[in-house]
UniProtKB/TrEMBL annotation, chain A:
Belongs to the CDC50/LEM3 family. It comes from Oreochromis aureus (Israeli tilapia). It is found in: Membrane. This is Cell cycle control protein. The chain crosses the membrane at residues 28-54, 311-332. Keywords: Membrane, Transmembrane, Transmembrane helix. It comes from the Eukaryota. InterPro entries: CDC50/LEM3_fam. One of its GO terms (cellular component) is endoplasmic reticulum. GO terms for biological process: phospholipid translocation. The gene is TMEM30B.
TrEMBL record, chain B:
The lineage of its organism: Eukaryota, Metazoa, Chordata, Craniata, Vertebrata. Its EC number is 7.6.2.1. ATP binds at D404, K405, T406, E516, F558, K581, R612, T692, G693, D694, R807, K813, N837, D838. The active site is at D404 (4-aspartylphosphate intermediate). This is Phospholipid-transporting ATPase. Its cofactor is Mg(2+). Pfam families: Cation_ATPase, E1-E2_ATPase, PhoLip_ATPase_C, PhoLip_ATPase_N. The gene is ATP11C.
Length: 340, 1149
């Protein structure tokens, strides 16, 4: 089509934008900037790396496998039998104080909590306390949505169903006297999970909300009786349940079980001595070649023990420094190309 | 579409016969007993593609015909049908977005078309029906209706002119909206119809609609009471085209012959064939690679999944039992759906948004060309015109420029320089230096030798005055009085001679070719003034101020094949004369040979001086001869078929045995900065070929003037002249010459590399070929060594710095372009031209550039880009083309890169989740990554980046070579980007993987889950790819700052927002507070920082280590070229940095 514009309108606007002459900053990554920059970054990284490494080294970790694979291991009998609440115990000795605060984890390996279908198998609406989803759970929970007699399962889905159900108690033997170590189960799940994302239906008593539903197939107790000692730790807002529901990223993972309550003798952590973990062994892992362990660890500002970060910082920091030296040499060669 | 098809069915009868019959005013004719009103399509113009009803299905169909859209649709459908890891929304939303935006854009455009159509269709027109004037809507016009059109109205359909308000049965129209030619064209009424249109009883037989604007054949049978019908031939001069505007004529009456979609204007709307750029081909190639990557990833994962599952205990652990349905499904079907699921999971590697971004970049980017004020020409008050935005980057890839000479290299601003009459040279000197310039005796006709006889002189000048199709421009006042007034004016001015020449030159002439104006003006200087054409009478004011009248009998129009035109006139004394002017090659064989020699010398000398030469000849026609010619012409004009050929035959028959009177030389000055432009193009490594219809000598001198040929250029000539060799057949001689030149240019030449290095010092070759020889080379199909010839020829041409092809027919120009285009390595070609004869080569080349010159608008209409002057080509290629290429190449590579490192972690994650298609990132991130988080910075980059400033690009043409041959999109760079993407993907994934060996990352001992893992990877990803782009950005305008930092800020803000609310419409609140929790972990912060740095380290190193050569060399060049003149800010910054560097070196070492 022929443009029908007035003649003056034909003249292009003479603005910086239309003429591609916007004022522009033209950064130059020249040696003068990059080499000192690299040196600075490198030094900073080395510093951070050293700090991280030192911190990480200072973290104490105690890992105890209790799968019961070998015959000699204390839980081998439990691992072979299918008895419910099979008891076994692990002994360990601390020579020095285990610096507090001490965190008590359980670890599973070759356990695919990140399996897609497994991860999708829950009903967030149900877990948000919506009663209408109690009677008709989401189909994503299948095959853990209804039991054999078509009763809805609450909480539905394979994540909830497969909740870790080994329990541990920790006792210390000091001069023949056993003393149970106080464990704190509060605040082991994310605050938002406990307070916002998961919610019990506002029915009192809680038990009534679960009328007409059945507990997950593999659970020993219904959801509203998860913690008989603390009413606010029941139903969907049970801390152990919440911890379990936050799926692990990798097949070998650990989840927080308890914190050592920093009180009394345990003010500064676990003092030296002989300890016994009494395990109620329920969770079968050998069928899929998995392993179970308990982990005691204290944490620093950077979290749990992890040497990777410190090493990474050290390596990259020194890389930067090395590269700045290389660049220096290269530049010394190419500095005045016209003089060559 | 449907309408057209229906028409074909209904009008099928009609279509089979080659002509249509129209009953003027729908009145039955006595000759036909039965009057069957024929069916033609109505006058509705439908340029719109859609209606309200079919918009949705049709538009969707059109959109999904694009292979990319279809692919995404399939992915989407797979997601809907199969249980896939990501919800259909993740790929549906972007697709929906793209489809909607495109649909809205197309819908809006179509709405505009509807509006325009309606405006045209509802326009009120006056129809004469049974003697009454009836107002009708334009769309209701039927073929055969008699319409009345007033001045300044456009014709509503194609009309045959029956009656004009002007006395001489003419009317003037301007076809500015059709072909852009703003001059007034004269159209003629059909004889015998002027008197009473109301009672006219006639039928018109004419050809079926065809798109050629300048062709029309038909005849009219006029029935008068019981008489034999009179037959009148109809030609384009009787046809008023829809879209043209009536000028200088109060009103006309005409009968509609073609209506609606059958008008020539509508037929011409059919779009040009789409040109595709090299970049697009590269994209498709890369796409294929990525498709392979995608499929192989999916295959690997599917295989691994089943391998993994075959291990005991892994397939269905007790904690994750399969549903009943899954158990029942066939194993192979399961495998297939798994494969599809993986495809869906990884499909983001081929992003929808890339197409959108590329389209947007092209569309928005093309504005910078039309906005560029450097392209604005104050003379024609216009800037550059972009007809297609698809080829912006192609401008940076040009290897061959084919340029027209006239109007492109030269200004097409003709000036009469001299003439030669009977071998005597007459040079016109500036009239102001000569008093009384029109006197014969002591006038400006400076004799070099002797003067020709006065009679011959006057005959020559009369020939110049008569043999043309020039019109005298009418000023706003009309009518006869003005005509007289002008004569008075001329008379009056003649009294005082000094003032005459400048004023007289202001007399406006309008002609399709500027040569003709120059000739008429030249004749005016010698005392013969053309006063105009009035009812077939040409008036000439001769030297003695007498008005001579000639009856114009026939015009034998100019055409490029004959290369001449003639008029047949009858003087008052009753003599019938034929005047002919044309190119020497077409005139010389047709005149008496003894006259040729003395003029040939002049013609050749003039041609060598770079002038355009025309020879003028005449012939007396005896009454018998004339009658023969007259009847021959009439017969040919009445022919409905092959009219052109028949006319040509008559023309050729008449234009023989003429007497040569003389020759003219007209100068066509070079365009401004033509030489500089050509030099810059050659400096940029572009080979310039001049394709012209002009004489060799003229073209050669132009080439020298443009510095295409230099003094040290060795010219290799392959023309008719060099083929003449005593004792040899032309074919043999051609063979010898080709071999000789081939040896010189190809075999003896140093290898390409060294030649590029010492570029200017080595021997330059220029190659000259003419049309006749070229057709010998190309059409030597009967020869057994045909292949050799074409190949040899091409090789010679490609090894010459410049090639001149003269005496080219338009089709030959296109042939040459095609030959080069399809040669080895398929180089990118660009054609520049300004005239209709360049259209074929403009359409043929990869990029067609139209010059908004004087030869109408056809070239501009058919071009991809139009610029006012040749000199603008330099900036268009060197600056715009270069930048666009770099921008889009970077855009494409970056897009593939960023999606590779986006999806690679997701792929790697499959190895750690039992190949269960678990997505690493949340659905929102998957969806938004390409739409929001990373799309704007690259778009801004691809619009504003100037890695080298425009001034620098213009100064150093050699920079253009750096990006030649698709340098940034070859497999090398592609591999580099791919490896970079792989490296980044590995760093992101495994960096975080190592971190997650202990998922307790917070200082309260709590552990992170899988969504935290994905979010950390994703955060690193977004920051890294954005910062990578920031590293590549050399030109930071505030827009770049805004979008780069804005995108990152938006990502952070979005993540907070997305994770901060329980979204009721989501089934799973996966990301609830994940991002905030991540930020509360120091380790997460540290890992993000260190991984970003690690990813970018090689890039920074590369940039830094590459530096010493890049800008430093550039700066050196700048210093050399500007020689201490203006220095760019960058160059002044440079020494400072060097200084910092040396300080640094002392401290560190």
């Amino acid at each position: 089509m022929v443009k029908q514009e007035s003649e003056s309108a034909n003249r292009p606007d003479n603005t910086a934008f239309t003429q591609q002459r916007l004022p522009a900053w033209q950064p130059i990554l020249s040696a003068g900037i990059v080499i000192p920059g690299f040196v600075l970054i490198g030094l900073a990284f080395i510093g951070i790396g050293v700090a991280l490494l030192v911190t990480s080294r200072s973290i104490q970790v105690l890992e105890l496998d209790y799968t019961g694979d070998g015959n000699g291991s204390p839980c081998s009998s439990c691992s072979q039998s299918t008895t419910v609440n099979c008891k076994c115990s692990l002994n360990f000795t601390l020579d020095t104080l285990f610096q507090g605060p001490v965190f008590f984890y359980y670890g599973l390996s070759n356990y695919f909590q990140n399996y897609r279908r497994y991860g999708a198998s829950k009903d967030d609406n149900q877990l948000y306390g919506d009663l209408s989803y109690f009677t008709s759970p989401s189909s994503s929970c299948s095959p853990y949505d209804y039991d054999g007699s078509k009763n809805p399962i609450v909480p539905c889905g394979s994540i909830a169903n497969s909740m870790f159900n080994d329990t541990f108690t920790l006792t210390r033997t000091v001069s023949g006297k056993t003393d149970s170590v106080p464990l704190d189960g509060k605040g082991i799940a994310w605050w938002t999970d406990y307070n916002v994302k998961y919610r019990n239906p506002s029915v009192t008593p809680l038990k009534n909300a679960f009328n007409g539903t059945v507990k997950p197939i593999d659970w020993a107790k219904p959801a509203y009786e998860l913690d008989t000692s603390d009413a606010s730790n029941n139903g969907f807002v049970n801390q152990d349940f919440l911890v379990w529901m936050r799926r692990a990223a990798l097949p070998n993972f650990r989840k927080l079980y308890r914190r050592i309550d920093a009180s009394g003798d345990y003010q500064n952590g676990l003092p030296a001595g002989n300890y016994t973990i009494d395990i109620t062994y329920n969770y079968p892992v050998r069928v899929f070649n998995g392993a179970k362990k308990v982990v005691f660890s204290n944490v620093s500002w950077m979290g749990g023990k992890n040497e990777f970060l410190g090493i990474a910082y050290l390596v990259i920091g020194s890389l930067c420094v090395v590269m700045s030296v290389v660049m220096l040499i290269v530049y010394a060669k190419f500095k005045f190309p016209d003089e060559e | 579409m449907l309408r057209r098809r229906l028409n074909r069915w209904f009008g099928g009868e009609d279509r089979r016969v080659d002509s249509r019959t129209i009953y003027v005013g729908h009145r039955p004719c006595p000759a036909n007993e039965v009057f069957i009103p024929p069916k033609f399509c109505d006058n509705r113009i439908v340029s719109s593609k859609y209606t309200v009803w079919n918009f949705l299905p049709k538009n969707l169909f059109e959109q999904f015909r694009r292979i990319a859209n279809f692919y995404f649709l399939i992915i989407f459908l797979v997601q809907v049908i199969v249980d896939t890891p990501t919800s259909p929304v993740t790929s549906g939303l972007p697709l929906f977005f793209v489809i909607t935006v495109t649909a809205i854009k197309q819908g809006y455009e179509d709405w505009l078309r509807h509006k325009a159509d309606n405006e045209v269709n509802k326009y009120r027109v006056t129809v004469l029906e049974d003697g009454r004037r009836i107002q009708k809507e334009s769309e209701k016009i039927k073929v055969g209706d008699v319409l009345e059109v007033d001045e300044d109205e456009t014709f509503p359909c194609d009309l045959i002119l029956l009656q004009s308000s002007r006395d001489d049965g003419t009317c003037f129209v301007t076809t500015a909206s059709l072909d852009g030619e703003s001059n007034h064209k004269t159209h003629y009424t059909v004889p015998d119809t002027e008197r009473d249109v109301e009672s006219l009883n006639a039928t018109i037989e004419c050809e079926q609609p065809q798109p050629d604007l300048y062709k029309f054949v038909g005849r009219m049978h006029i029935y008068k009471n019981n008489e034999e019908p009179t037959l009148r031939s109809l030609g384009p001069e009787n046809l008023l085209l829809k879209g043209a505007t009536l000028k200088n004529t109060q009103s006309i009456c005409g009968v509609a012959v073609y209506t609606g979609m059958e008008t020539k204007m509508a037929l011409n709307y059919q779009g040009k064939s789409q040109k595709r750029s090299v970049v697009e081909k590269s994209i498709n190639a890369f796409l294929l690679v990525y498709l392979c990557i995608l499929v192989s990833k999916a295959l690997v994962c599917t295989t691994l999944k089943y391998v993994w599952q075959s291990k005991p205990g892994q397939d269905e652990p007790w904690y994750n039992e399969k549903t009943l349905k899954e158990k029942e499904t066939n194993r192979y079907l399961n495998m297939f759906t798994d494969f599809l699921s993986f495809m869906v999971l990884f499909n983001f590697i081929i992003p929808v948004s890339m197409y959108v971004t590329v389209e947007m970049q092209k569309f928005l980017g093309s504005f910078f060309i039309s906005w560029d004020k450097d392209f604005f020409d104050s003379e024609i008050e216009e800037g550059a015109l972009v007809n297609t935005s698809d080829l912006n980057e192609e401008l940076g890839q040009v290897e061959y420029v084919f340029t027209d000479k006239t109007g492109t290299l030269t200004q097409n601003n003709m000036e009469f320089i001299e003439c030669c009459i009977d071998g005597h040279q007459y040079k016109y000197r500036d009239a102001s230096s000569e008093v009384d310039g029109f006197c014969v005796t002591d006038g400006p006709m400076n004799t070099v030798q002797q003067k020709a006889g006065r009679e011959r002189e006057e005959l020559f000048l009369r020939a110049l005055c008569l043999c043309h199709t020039v019109q005298v421009k009418e000023s706003t006042e009309q009518g006869q009085g003005q005509e007289d007034g002008r004569i008075d004016q001329v008379d009056g001015l003649m009294v005082d001679g000094q003032v005459v020449p400048p004023l007289q030159e202001q007399r406006g002439f309008i002609a399709s070719s500027p040569d003709e104006i120059a000739l008429v003006q030249g004749a005016m200087r010698y005392g013969f003034t053309f006063l105009g054409l009035e009812s077939k009478t040409m008036k000439i004011l001769n030297r003695t101020n007498d008005v001579e009248m000639y009856e114009l009998l026939h015009v034998l129009n100019f055409d490029p094949v004959r290369r001449r035109m003639s008029v047949i006139v009858r003087s008052i004394s009753g003599e019938t004369l034929l005047f002919c002017k044309g190119a020497d090659s077409s005139i010389f064989p047709r005149v008496k040979q003894e006259e040729v020699e003395k003029i040939r010398m002049h013609v050749e000398r003039n041609a060598t001086d770079g002038y355009r030469t025309l020879c003028v000849a005449y012939k007396h026609l005896t009454p018998e001869e004339y009658d023969q010619v007259d009847s021959g012409l009439r017969e040919a004009r009445l022919a409905l078929q092959d009219r052109e050929e028949k006319l040509m035959a008559v023309y050729n028959q008449v234009e023989t045995g003429m007497n040569l009177i003389g020759a003219t030389a007209v100068e066509d000055r070079l365009q401004e900065e033509a030489a500089e432009t050509m030099e810059a193009l050659q400096g940029a490594g572009i080979k310039v070929w001049v394709l012209t219809g002009d004489k060799m000598e003229t073209a050669k001198s132009t080439c020298y003037a443009c510095r295409l040929f230099k003094r040290n250029t060795e010219l290799l000539e392959l023309t008719v002249r060099t083929l003449e060799y005593p004792g040899k057949r032309r074919e043999d001689r051609l063979h010898d010459l080709l071999l000789e030149y081939h040896k010189k240019t190809v075999q003896d030449a140093p290898p390409a590399k060294t030649r590029v290095a010492r570029n200017w010092s080595s021997q330059d070759f220029g190659f000259i070929v003419d049309g006749a020889t070229l057709s010998m080379v190309l059409n030597s199909s009967s020869e057994n060594n045909l292949h050799d010839y074409k190949d040899l020829f091409l090789q010679i041409c490609q090894n010459c710095t410049s090639v001149l092809c003269c005496r080219m027919a338009p089709l030959q120009k296109a042939q040459i372009v095609k030959m080069v285009k399809n040669s080895k390595g398929s180089p990118i070609t660009l054609s520049v031209g300004d005239g209709a004869n360049d259209v074929s080569m403009i359409l043929e080349a990869h990029v067609g550039i139209g010059i908004k010159g004087k030869e109408g608008r056809q070239a501009v209409r058919n071009s991809d880009y139009a610029i006012p002057k040749l000199k603008h080509l330099k900036k268009l290629l060197l600056a715009h083309g270069h930048l666009y290429y770099v921008r889009i190449a970077h855009l494409v590579q970056y897009f593939f890169y960023k999606n590779l490192c986006f999806i690679l972690p997701q792929f790697l994650y499959q190895f750690f989740c039992g190949c269960s298609q678990q997505p690493l990132y949340d659905a929102a991130y998957l969806t938004m990554y390409n739409i929001c988080f990373t799309s704007m910075p690259i778009l801004a980059y691809s619009l504003f980046e100037q890695h080298i400033s425009i001034e620098m690009l213009l100064e150093n043409a050699t920079l253009y070579r750096q990006i030649g041959k698709n340098a940034m999109l070859r497999w090398g760079p592609f591999l580099y980007w791919t490896l970079l993407g792989v490296f980044h993907g590995l760093v992101f994934f495994f960096g975080v993987w190592f971190l997650f060996s202990n998922p307790a990352l917070q200082d309260n001992g709590q552990a992170f889950g899988n969504w935290s893992y994905g979010t950390i990877v994703f955060t690193i990803l977004v920051f890294t790819v954005t910062l990578k782009l920031a590293l590549d950005t050399r030109h930071w305008t505030w827009i770049n700052h805004f979008v780069i930092w804005g995108s990152l800020a938006f990502y952070v803000f979005f993540s907070f927002f997305w994770g901060g609310v329980i979204w009721p419409f989501l089934r799973q609140q996966r990301l609830y507070f994940v991002f905030a929790n991540m930020l509360s972990s120091v380790s997460a912060w540290l890992v993000i920082i260190v991984l970003i740095l690690l990813s970018l380290l090689p890039e920074i190193l590369y940039v830094v280590l590459r530096k010493p050569r890049g800008p430093y060399a550039r700066q050196k060049k700048l210093v050399q070229s500007s020689a201490g003149g203006i220095q760019s800010p960058r160059s002044s910054a440079r020494p400072l940095l060097m200084r910092t560097f040396s300080d640094e070196s002392s401290t560190v070492s």
